[in-house]
Amino acid sequence: MGKTIGIISIKGGVGKTTIAASMAADLVNYYGKKVMLVDANYSAPNLGLHMDIIEPGKTIHDVLSGRARVESAIHKRFGVDVVPGSYVYSKDLNLLKLKDKLAKAKNEYDFIIIDSSPSLNDEVLSAMLASDHLFVVTTPDYPTLSCSLKAAKLARQRGKNVSGVIINKIRDPKYEVDLDNIEASLGIPVVAKIADDKNSVRALFNKTPVSVYNNKSAFAKEINKLNAALTYHVEPVPLWRYLFGKNFKREEVNRSLLKEGFYTSLFSNNGRR
Length: 273
Ligand SMILES: Nc1ncnc2c1ncn2[C@@H]1O[C@H](COP(=O)(O)OP(=O)(O)OP(=O)(O)O)[C@@H](O)[C@H]1O
Ligand SMILES: [Mg+2]
Description:
The chain is of the alpha/beta class. It has one domain: Rossmann fold (3-Layer(aba) Sandwich). The chain has 12 helices and 8 strands. Strands 3-4-2-5-1-6-7-8 form an 8-stranded mixed beta sheet, with helices on both faces. Helix 1 (16-29) crosses helix 10 (218-230) and helix 10 packs parallel to helix 12 (250-266). The longest helix has 17 residues, at 250-266. The chain is globular, with a radius of gyration of 18 Å. The N and C termini lie close together (4 Å). Bound molecules: adenosine-5'-triphosphate and magnesium ion. The site of adenosine-5'-triphosphate has 18 residues, from helix 1, strand 7 and helix 8.
């Protein structure tokens, strides 16, 4: 059985969709996994703009309203099965049905990645409840961190564990909140540190996931390392690090713990993968 992974934050513009699109494309194209990518940002869906879907056919909104089955809303892009959102949003949908709607697909995919909404309402709850594992995306500033704290609290209240924090858009570390403080405030391990990277903006302009646009970029490399943990692969470490006996970074250690957790849970679904 596959795993559903929710990428959450209740602050807009921190990079959820950019990260979700890149994670999905990298899991397919580098790790050879079968991946579905779902837009659960129902009121402002824009995953399509990252995945070259401008005029979607059937959407997640059609799936939730019962007008379509999830298979018929798949748009294949960059090897990923994308279920985009509709720009016309009808408020009477039961968003909390997402988990049920994806239940069958979990048997057919290695991963279902869910991009979520920054709204602190049923939109984000829909993604939280449908996910086996959650990653909170934050930028390294206090206002965003306080929103990330709320997201983590909401997840815990709903009995959902947050597997890790992804710090995105690191610009000027001397003037930003550091990893230690982020871990201490959220009580969640940091599993990726992504620099501010102009490849993200260029990739979006080209409607392409960053991992496909430039897989050597700092952004793509960090996503690739996180995906190594999710797929139980050894993270590539440069030779000079071994030669000079340089210590592992905290996020690397956190990823190796995450990897063990994912490995264990591979065998906790009634013995089925
Ligand atoms: N590491 C990065 N460096 C520079 N720009 C980035 C980075 N990550 C994302 N961006 C840019 O930030 C903008 C917002 O990203 P994105 O749409 O992924 O955020 P979001 O959290 O999904 O927003 P929303 O909550 O509104 O859906 C985009 O222009 C994207 O290209
Ligand atoms: Mg988004």
